[in-house]
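Structure first, sequence second, as always.
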């Protein structure tokens, strides 16, 4: 699970931490680069906005990280998750 901890209350964080491993984004990567807008469609590959080195370092294993340029989507307040269309 990928989160920006400051976006949650203490009670919310306690509930989130019950689900297992939590990867946290720093303020710059979360607020300016929408790093938490990443997606992991298959549980093995994480697709994330480029230029988020701290977060990538934190989630590099066991997942394979793929950086993409979503700079145009960032202008409208979205990133990777907003661009996906999963087929089931």
């Amino acid at each position: 699970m990928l989160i920006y901890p400051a976006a949650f209350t203490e009670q919310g964080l306690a509930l989130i931490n019950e689900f297992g491993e939590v990867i946290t984004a720093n303020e710059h990567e979360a607020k300016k680069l929408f790093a938490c807008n990443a997606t992991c469609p298959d549980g093995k590959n994480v697709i994330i906005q480029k230029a988020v080195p701290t977060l990538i370092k934190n989630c590099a294993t066991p997942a394979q990280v793929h950086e993409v340029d979503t700079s145009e989507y960032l202008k409208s307040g979205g990133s990777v998750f907003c661009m996906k269309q999963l087929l089931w």
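Margin note: The beta strands are 2-3, 23-24, 45-49, 64-68.
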